[in-house]
Amino acid sequence: MDKWDKRNRPTRLEKRFEFETYQETRDFLDSLGELSESKKIFPDISFGKTYVNITLRPESEEKDAQITDLENKFATRIDGLLD
Amino acid sequence: MTNTPTPSSKASDQTVDVSPVKNSSTTSKGTKVNRDARTKSSGSSTANSINKPSSAKRPAGKGGGIVNESPKNAFGYGATPNQGIALGMIETRGMVPAIEAADAMTKAAEVTLISREYVGGGYVTVMVRGETGAVNASVRAGADACERVGDGLVAAHIIARPDGEVEPVLAPSGAKRRY
């Protein structure tokens, strides 16, 4: 789980992915979409032409919810999309 | 005709940074852009759309954006009973890519176009709501469509579970074209 930032208030995992072209960005987004559909985990996504910012929030909506193995594993899977 | 300030100066009642258009033909073309947003407004609303808000014909709390005429949710804003909660937004530079994005988004997946905002400086933001997977696919399609049009895509954002407190912000402000 390389370079995912764990942030607080509220607790979340964030990572920025950079790409050379918009096509690469789109390919990554398509892969991410398929992964999200298969795992039923939908992170917040912010993107432009050559970057994608992903925010993974705890599945629980409680105020003090913490990042669990579920989110950590999903983050690892996202990293694997670039391999 | 005088413009009497209303007790509640809602954004939908305000013209922002725009000189009133007096040419009726030009105005009627302009109102066509918001044809779907104005609730079955008649042609005589031409002047009304500039000097007098057609608030009587618009759902309460609604602005001039593209809205879904459907039962209101708990926050008083239009939402279909089956509307998902995920929110997708695309910001473009210019109106043409914004329309292209909105068209592509609504064609790509089962989403509802809830808002089009002129945010100043030539930037336009369009927003959709729906199920998370649908919004994901929709925003990607919209970004694809507008990326090659004009100055194209500025930014896109997807919030899977917006907090309820955000709902009032998502309603169209009704602000007219800004320069």
Characterization of this structure:
The complex is a heterodimer of chains A (83) and B (179). The longest helix of chain A is centred in the middle third of the chain and has 18 residues, at 22-39. By secondary structure, chain A is α+β, with helices and mostly antiparallel strands. Chain A has a four-stranded antiparallel beta sheet with strand order 1-2-4-3, with helices on one face. In chain A, strand 3 (44-47) and strand 4 form a beta hairpin. Chain A has a domain at 1-54: Gyrase A, domain 2 (2-Layer Sandwich), CATH 3.30.1360. The model of chain A has no long low-confidence stretch (mean pLDDT 90). In chain A, 36% of the residues lie in helices and 24% in strands. In chain A, 24% of the residues are buried. Chain A is globular and about 40 Å long. By secondary structure, chain B is of the alpha+beta class. Among the domains of chain B are: 18-51, no CATH class; 86-170, Alpha-Beta Plaits, CATH 3.30.70.1710. In chain B, 28% of the residues lie in helices and 18% in strands. Chain B contains five helices and four strands. In chain B, strands 2-3-1-4 form a four-stranded antiparallel beta sheet, with helices on one face. In chain B, helix 3 (95-108) runs antiparallel to helix 4 (132-147). The longest helix of chain B has 16 residues, at 132-147. Chain B starts with 23 loop residues before the first helix and ends in a 9-residue tail after the last helix. Residues 15-82 of chain B have low confidence and may be disordered. Classes of the chains: A alpha+beta (83), B alpha+beta (179). Chains A and B meet through helix 1 and strand 3 of A and helix 4 and strand 4 of B. Strand 3 of chain A pairs antiparallel with strand 4 (153-159) of chain B.
